Amino acid sequence: MYDIAVIGAGASGIVAAISAKKTNDNLSVALIEALPKIGKKILATGNGRCNLTNLTANTKSYNTKAVSAVMGNCPPNKIIEFFSSIGLECVTDSESRVYPMSNTATGVLDCLRFEADRLEIDVITDTKVTSVRKNNRTFVINDSIECRKVVVATGGKAAPSQGSDGSGYPIIKSLGHTVTQLYPGLVQLTVKENLKFLKGIRVKATVSLKDKNGKMLDKSEGEILFADYGLSGIAIMDVSRSVKENNCICSLDILSDMKNEAVYEFIAKAKKRNPSLLLEDALCGILPKKVGYLIIKNSGFRQDITLRELRNEDINKFVCNMKNCVFTVIGTRGFDSAQITVGGAVFDEFDTKTLESKFAEGLYCTGELLDVDAPCGGFNLQWAWASGIVAGNAAAYSLTR
Questions:
Q1: Strand 145-152 relative to strand 363-365: parallel, antiparallel, unpaired?
Q2: What is the pTM for the complete model shown?
């Protein structure tokens, strides 16, 4: 019999357990994890550096305004203070992304583990939770573990090899909650076109994602990485949450820092200076050569076309294709490659201040399990920490009160 049991030892689950115990050290707290060790997914965040949060994170960073109470209670500076209190200092880069001073996700997890040990939280690993049953004023987990309050922090479906296998959704459904349709988010896009010859090339671009009727679905700007299967990079990951049907159109403005007129003028000057130069070679001053070839091909020109052969309307056509380079999206790389889950437990069914269920008193949900998502840059981990702290504090306070 525990006072509080936290199911799922990922980012939000670990801090929920720690926060509950810090709120009232007399409470017995269990942290239950299906994998042999806790915090595996934390180790993969930020390419192993763990982008803890982002100083610009606020309500507008997320897909729902319902996060406002939690974000108001635990803004980025509070997360930094929390980690400082357990022995982890942070640094901030030029894009407001916050990292551990050690620059390693391992350091983050170690500090969390040491704090859980210090607080004498009962960590139970190799225990997959398949059922949570309400029994009058308590909960029974797997018909064997009883608790007065339960925090479900199992994560979504993204990166199942790291523990997020979607097992939390049936649990909260069994307790009366609604789960939306689920999609992979912050994931690479697969396209119809053959891009193998561009594999590994990076460009900065503006990305516009449209449905097959031309309606704008999402937009982003940043780095694009060409891959043999399609498109990757931060800007692509940020719009991937809106890919919910096949045959979307992904349009890239390959030279987003240059206006159409400036690109036209660049080519016109090159033509005047050296009319016998191949268009492909003339572009090497502003584009990777293979990307230039892609635009030449999309414009219907020969690869060996020279600047002398270009009429004004040809240059205009080329510029338009460069500023609107179109790919047909046929899907994503799926949950195995995704960083987050789009969709989840309907937020309206929880108290937005405490994250307690409106249907089952004493049940709390955190992190990715809820229908909350955000772009790359530390925003999703910010939500994980903040929601875990709020739910853990609320569960402990309700027992203390």
A1: parallel
A2: 0.94
